[in-house]
């Protein structure tokens, strides 16, 4: 057999042990095996359970602390953080994942606020509001396959809808809610919500249906279509968890 001359091979990259541990702990928290407020096992015990060095466990815990998932208390141990919904409207400083239960609770809040907002927008929208929403829809369509741009266009549409209500308090609440949702978009990106074409196409159709109802000043239809949209996104995330 002749030798292959001059061919460059890329070195195969493998995950660090600490990254594997971080991912497994993260999954345990997301699936509720370890609940918010509960204490994780000690570094020594985790090292034995994973059959790795204590330094690898410490590195994994440091990564989880950096994204706000856990708190390490000197002399007490490591605790899973609870998503603080009382601070939902406080400035967002870090993106983090939330557990399945927290995600469901957040969607309950979205359905309460955004479904009502869609009805008000249908009643009080202006031509300028419609143009803002339409621009967001165009940007969303052009962003197919690009997760970051798709996510931004999605948020832009929902904020334009909130402004269309003419209610300044609701507008500010939606702005802060969208910032809070940015903490949870990790999960959406992880399952390809904005990159999987069939899912993305469905999202586009759902947003267009909401826009059409608002444009036609059909409050009941806008209410119905927004609820349908939020339920579909929620079910997509739930289905992913169940498949896991």
TrEMBL record:
Pfam families: FCD, GntR. Keywords: DNA-binding, Transcription, Transcription regulation. SMART domains: FCD, HTH_GNTR. Residues 15-83 form the HTH gntR-type domain. InterPro entries: GntR_C, TF_FadR/GntR_C, Tscrpt_reg_HTH_GntR, WH-like_DNA-bd_sf, WH_DNA-bd_sf. It comes from the Bacteria. This is FadR/GntR family transcriptional regulator.
């Amino acid at each position: 057999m002749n030798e292959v001359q001059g061919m460059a091979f890329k070195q195969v990259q493998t995950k660090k042990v600490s990254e594997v541990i971080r991912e497994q702990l993260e999954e345990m928290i997301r699936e509720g095996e370890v609940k918010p407020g509960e204490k994780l096992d000690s570094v020594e015990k985790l090292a034995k359970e994973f059959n790795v060095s204590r330094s690898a466990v410490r590195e994994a815990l440091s990564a989880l602390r950096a994204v706000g998932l856990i708190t390490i208390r000197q002399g007490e141990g490591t605790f899973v953080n609870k998503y603080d919904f009382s601070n939902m409207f406080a400035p967002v400083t870090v993106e983090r994942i939330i557990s399945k239960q927290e995600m469901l609770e957040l969607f309950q809040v979205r359905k309460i606020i955004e479904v009502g907002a869609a009805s008000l927008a249908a009643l009080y929208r202006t031509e300028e509001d419609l143009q803002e929403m339409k621009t967001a829809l165009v940007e969303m369509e052009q962003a197919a396959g690009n997760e970051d741009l798709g996510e931004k266009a999605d948020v832009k549409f929902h904020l334009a809808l909130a402004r269309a209500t003419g209610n300044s308090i609701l507008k500010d609440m939606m702005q802060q809610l969208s910032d809070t949702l940015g903490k949870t978009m990790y999960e959406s990106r992880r399952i390809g919500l904005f990159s999987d074409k069939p899912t993305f196409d469905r999202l586009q159709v759902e947003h267009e249906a909401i826009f059409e109802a608002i444009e036609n000043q059909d409050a009941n239809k806008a209410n119905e279509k927004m609820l349908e949209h939020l339920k579909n996104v929620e079910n997509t995330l739930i289905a992913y968890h169940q498949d896991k």
